[in-house]
Write a structure and sequence with these properties.
The chain has 4 helices and 6 strands, in the order H-H-E-E-E-H-E-E-E-H. The chain is an alpha+beta fold.
Length: 160
């Protein structure tokens, strides 16, 4: 049973530390990609404050295709190099955008989204996909988020 009330009063750092432990536990031993990405998006979404969308885009036939997520319906396909997700995939680096309205070429799937962090999933030196997290707040994501979410991506990669 999953009970969010145990996390009340914790700092975001404490929640992230618990998130990493939960990801290890829930993904370990399961080999189905959809199952693991679904549970990963649910855990990350549940333990991240002020998040409006959390999910994955996976590389298929040269473009990013919507995978498991938590939130409102989203864009289904994103070309590599386009928008924040496509740019993170192309550069193979984490991108934090404080205000998506100032990001040239931003693809607005949700008009309420104001900030975003996108983390590439790199396997064998090739892009596998990205973890995309949005917030309705401006400048929601920082270096602490990047640090813990990159650790989360490493755990996810070990279980794909």
């Amino acid at each position: 049973m999953f009970d969010l009330s145990v996390f009340i009063g914790m700092t975001q750092k404490e929640k992230y530390e618990n998130m990493l432990l939960m990801l290890k536990g829930i993904l370990q031993g399961e080999k189905d990609v959809i199952t693991n990405l679904s549970n990963a998006s649910a855990v990350i979404n549940a333990l991240s404050e002020d998040v409006s969308w959390c999910g994955f885009y996976l590389l298929k036939e040269g473009e990013l295709v919507l995978g498991p997520f938590q939130g409102l319906p989203a864009c289904t396909r994103i070309p590599i190099g386009k928008g924040v997700c496509g740019t993170a995939a192309e550069k193979m680096e984490t991108i934090i955008v404080e205000d998506v309205n100032s990001f040239e070429g931003h693809i607005a799937c949700d008009a309420a989204s104001n900030s975003e962090i996108v983390l590439p999933i790199i396997i064998n030196n090739s892009i596998y996909g990205v973890l995309d997290i949005d917030s309705t707040s401006i400048a929601r994501f920082d270096e602490e988020d990047k640090y813990y979410l990159e650790k989360a991506v490493e755990i996810i990669k070990e279980n794909l």
